[in-house]
Amino acid sequence: MDAGFIINFTPTGMIPTKVMTPRVPVTPEEIAADVLAAAELGASIAHLHARDPQTGEPSYRQEFYAEIIRAIRRENRELVLSVSTSGRHIAEFEKRSEVLDLDGELKPDLASLTLSSLNFNKQASVNSP
Q1: CB atoms < 10 A from the CB of 16, how many?
Q2: CA–CA gap between residue 37 and residue 41 (Å, rounded)
Q3: pTM score, two decimals?
């Protein structure tokens, strides 16, 4: 009996930079290309972190997520897309949740939500009650 698997692929997180590794995708095009390649290999969910394409820094900006999602949906409408609402670099809920206001085919299927503060090795990710 084939139990099957759900493979959740995250092409980039909040930490890696091009300086750390030139392979980390930071532009919407690079992120979408890595997601689509992972989907071809069997990934069924993509967990997305947006980056400012000019600086490579993590971003909450809705328009960056929209570019990533649009590029993925153009090629693959079946992949489940999850977005990060991380508070590691952005504390304000209004900014963190901006991506959830996307509409139509750009609206993400899922979003991560950290309900408590977390201690990482170099900093804390503080979430207010």
Answers
A1: 17
A2: 7
A3: 0.88
